[in-house]
User: Fold these one by one.
Assistant:
Number 1:
Amino acid sequence: MFLPDPSISLTQMYGRVRGFYLSYSGLGKDAKLLILSISIWSVTFGFLDVTYAPFLDILGQRGELIGTLMLVSSFSSAVLMIPFGILADRYGRKPFLLVSTVLSAFSFAIYFFVTDIFLFVIAELIKGLSWAMSWGTSAAFLAEKASEKQRPYAFGLSSFGFAAGCVFGYVMGAVPDFLTVAYGMDRPESIRVMYLVTAVVSVVSLFPLIPIKEERRHLAGGTEARWLNITSWRVVSWFALTNALVGLGAGFMIPWFSYYFTRKFGVNLAEVAVVFAVSQVGMAIAYLIVPKMVEKIGSVRTVVYAQATAILTLLLISISPGFTVASVLYTIRVILMNMTSPALSSFFMGLLKSEERASGNSLVSALWNIGNALPRPVAGYIMENVFLDMTLYICASLYSISTVIFYGVFRKEDST
């Protein structure tokens, strides 16, 4: 569908490319500023993804403790996400995004200044608070800043920007190894220096948010304002279930991939960072293509086809003969499993009313985070004491169940 067709004239090909460009360039100023902020902030996420578990491993922490620290941020964000979503729907999304960015920078700075485990717990709590304020709110804010027709492209460009930012974060993940070789820093110190850089990057992501305009919101009278502002419960419930299953599966494996690769194949952080960066580049490109796929085959089928193939490649990683093959399979898996995110977000937002989007998305995201948080200490124990590949099989199984349920529930609401 996206390969050159010799029967298409150059004029027709130019028209398609121009139409593709105009679909994205037609987004409003506020939507573009929000996407820019998300893109800058995602640099910090990419760096964290590469370095966090190996950094704590280098400090001598066991897998169970590493998983517990991961649990703190994910679970705290899940618990707080719903109330912040309710407040954002009623009082406005922008203030929560501004505060979230400041808290994110503060949490990264803690890792630069201290190495005390207790203070690491505090940093994870602050990080969880930051995620709770932004996770569901940003999607609702972006949906508000784009028309129904533009929405798939807004989420596609947002996901592209997030992936592009992650690429820079992954490249930053290779810098500690360079600092160790070039300047003689010990490995923990070199990673801590880069955490300070990520704190600065997080602050920079604050500035595109400032000029964004948002209409002032007022609470309606009565006690209704105290309750979750959701009426589309069937949609939200099924999305919550399928997302919770994906989150549960991801918690067993996805945050552990850098740890998994260093343990299974004996590679260093720089090698892992390169693989992560390449996978993000592929995913960024795929994000821009997905809206056209949705137009051709529908949101649900786009999600199901991509996820089913991703699950197969995930299983093949466990039997890879070496890191090269595993890294290729990992890259394919990342692209396929994550490229559907803008399609899912746009599809979900389109099924909800404007006034319930932040609440609904926060509830779904909260259950994803709870599912994602709970297995992390268990996964750390399994990988260190039982069988390194077992968590990968658990992850693939839960992904499969979620994909089947999602298709069964939403296939009739697909649009082509």
Note: The mean pLDDT is 80.
Number 2:
Amino acid sequence: MQTSSRQRYDVLIAGGAVMGSSVACFLKQLAPACNVAVVEPDEVYEFASTVRASGGARRLFSCPENIEMSNFSIAYMASLPDVGWQKGGYLFIVPPEGVDALRANHEIQREHGVNVELLDRQALQARFPSMRADDLAAGAHSLDDGWCDPHSLLQGLKKQARSAGVAYVKDKVVGFERDRATVRNAQLASGAAITADHFVNAAGAWSKEVSAMIGMPLPIEPLRRFEHYFETPNRIEPLPYVKDLARLAFRPEGRGYSGGLVNSGEPRGFNFDVDHDYFESAVWPALAHRFRAFEACRCIRTWSGLYEQNELDGNPVIGNWPGHADNFFVVAGFSGHGMMHAPAAGRAIAELIVKRRFETLDLSRLGYARVADNQPYAERGIL
């Protein structure tokens, strides 16, 4: 990290974790001469959502944009050295009332090239004999999905960006100056002001506060969630990343497992306190219900992190605010899917800035217009 020694850049990015670093990388790929600054107050990323994430990346979505972002991002992550990519697959499991949505999503996924199988109750039980399936009706098993180490992914993207000439500035954006529909400069907590042609809000759970500095409302709130590392002495066959409709989600990790159960009703706010009783009261019963082997599991560690929850529809906001802030771009609100979509989203923002359009993937339906018009574009099925 450095302090700002330059007063003008072509692009200034607020937020230097996985999303901001991805934007920076792709800007330099598309326009090597572009001068890019990433402003990040937390040089060790202590509270960044990236390093507190589970690392999962999957194609099991209903919106074509999310599927295609995963298609690109997973291939990109798997090609990076030292990120610990594990092609362990994903398994979505549903009771009878979830079958129609699972089948509809399966059709869309297949249309977009996803290697996914639909399994009925008998097939689920045969493939995963340790799993209780009598209350399930079906599952979707995507064999090419998996997980990586989020911290290594962040550091890899940051290293790549810095080697391309991106400046990482240890500071915090606290305001902007604008002239009608054009943002002119960013004020930093240190007192410095940086002028730029384009600005990017990649502040994650803090993105609502950053956009509010130019009067741009975002329906994005920080949502605390817990991740647990747990072990069981009982044998279980190799498992993919398992998810259900109640938002139980876990995957293998070393000798044990990493996962949790998101409480969608958690009060919004910047809360990093850890409830050490949550695993026993909420997660363990769900695990033990689904896998008898987890009746004897033991939670080794619990930590908290934040989702940047888009309260409108759970999908990200990717784009600018035409006619109000033409050169100010938002890439936030991923609602738990930020790490897995960071490469594709970073490329998309870079294309908007350099090419002035989405060139590789048309992500127009994820733009700010739906927020301004209060028209949700939501995922169907498991979040």
Note: The chain has a mean pLDDT of 96.
Number 3:
Amino acid sequence: MKAIYFSSFGGPEVLQYGEIPNPSAGPDRLIILVKAVSLNAADYKMRNGYLKIAGDPVFPRIPGSDFAGIVKETGDGVTLFKPCDKVYGFIPTISGEQGAMAELVVASKHLVRHLPEGMAFEEAAALPAAALTALNGLRNGGNLSGKSVLVNGATGGVGHFAVQLARAQGARVTAMCSSRNADLALKLGASEVIDYKTTDPETLGKKFDLILDAYGLMKRAGVYRLLKRKGVYASTLFFGSNLAAALVQFFSGKKLASAGMRSWQLDFEEIESYFTRGQLHPVVENTFPLKSAADAFRLSEGGKSRGKIVVRI
């Protein structure tokens, strides 16, 4: 099969396009004809060697954790899927599994879902890691109805889902992004947009019940000043707690939390329900053919793309 793979850690230049042996289905596994794969930060961090799995690396490695496609074959123990079913899902490549940036991928039945009615392959491939991360990050704020939420990196992969999900849950959403993306943030459901390049949010005199930092680089001192009493800051790059953070939480209730991905079945179901109700729409403005995946990685690592970047196969 044709695939994108790398045989050493490094930048986009280490990615190769060529032939890799076809995979085989084991128990509780499916072989899927891949139609689309979306990129996440974890994909290029794994390729760079920043997210090495335990032990010596095994090459070649195929990147790509989020995918959508058509079931080709099922292994023993798979009863909910059959050949020709349209599906999407997630591959935990960080644990050492081969990714989906290939014509075929092997996936666990526990991390595969039927494609919701009306959802395109590109949209489905954009969902898993980013949308589930946004959903889990927002959970730190509890019931968001009537609450004020600030989303930093509001038009990126995780952020554009967070804006929509917070709005769908009844929050008043302030989006922080570049001015050139203000139109998209408002379209996604933000009631106000802050240009991070020209405006320090602390100067606006606003405080928030929840800050979801999808970009992950807000400074802790500034975060505390922006939070209401008992407010929560959730970051996709959670920098841990310390004695000072513990004391702040004890006296003011202000909390630091992680916005990591959770992939329970009920999480997938919740994401799908927002889509079917028209409250969640994956933004895919940049697509690439498989052989040009290195260009997709370069765009992703530049950090300026809107929504998700998808490789078509």
Note: Residues 130-258 form a domain with the Rossmann fold fold (CATH 3.40.50.720).
Number 4:
Amino acid sequence: MAHLFFIDPLEKLNIKKDSSLMMALEFRSLGHEVYLLFEKDFYINNQSETKLVVYDFEGSFKEDGIYLANFKATDKKIFTPSKNDYIHMRIDPPFDTRYLRYLWMLDFLETMTEVTVLNNPKGIMLHNEKLEAYKQTVSVDSYIGASEEGFLNFITHLKAAQVEELILKPLDLYSGIGVEKISLKDSNLLEKFRAMVKEFEGAIVAQPFLKAVYEGEHRAIYYDAKELGVIIKKPNKGEFLSNIAQGAQFEKSELSDELKNLCQKISEDLLKDGVNFIAFDILGNTITEINITCPGLLVEVSYAYNKNLARTIGELYL
């Protein structure tokens, strides 16, 4: 049994706090056979064996045993995936055509070789990270689309509810990329909507700005429908994005019983579609995003708990 971590080029990653590299190192420390698979080496065959070029690696953790001190790929070898092997789909979003191609290819490989892909490609394709959150009974009042008439009707609805500020964001990006906060009194509101539709070539999400973000946004990580840990991320003074990569602070936290039960139910439902690894983003009492493409912040949550949670995941495969 081997574990292949299908990842972006190392030069694109923040080595110090990359969840995938953390998992690769910790899985190996548990005795698992582990390799790296890069985009440039990934392919499939339909009439003969798919023999992938994979890489060995070496690295170490800092004294805290959580953040990475160093990491590098080393020797390469040929690996033929088969039953009982795992490929961890850890390519970073956005969920664009490039990403979709990889999901199609991984699904094909899973069918042809019986290798297990985590998260399951079909599961990822079925569940958009934002729309899955908006399906919940308690969710953010949201408009999704490119229709100007629909957008203006939504603005009228928000004004009637005495909403003052709006969030516009693309449907398929991540880490706060493309997010704008705009006053409903802004005379250029429609023009900004049009510009974003043009820039991102399609449907845009519009939502009332939730002031709960100033109190912090929770990130709850689940694996195999079990909670691993929860942190709260707080934006810097004067900011509205609680993104750690952009300087937000974080600390250990916990969810209310109501939210815990909801996350548990969602995790159990998604597990039926082969979605093992989930990271929930929560503002106030509302789940705003259900991250399944390449859930992150495992390093930060581990640090808050003073426990390497990648080890907890790796132990499931012993």
Note: The chain has three domains: 2-125, 129-134+212-291, 143-209.
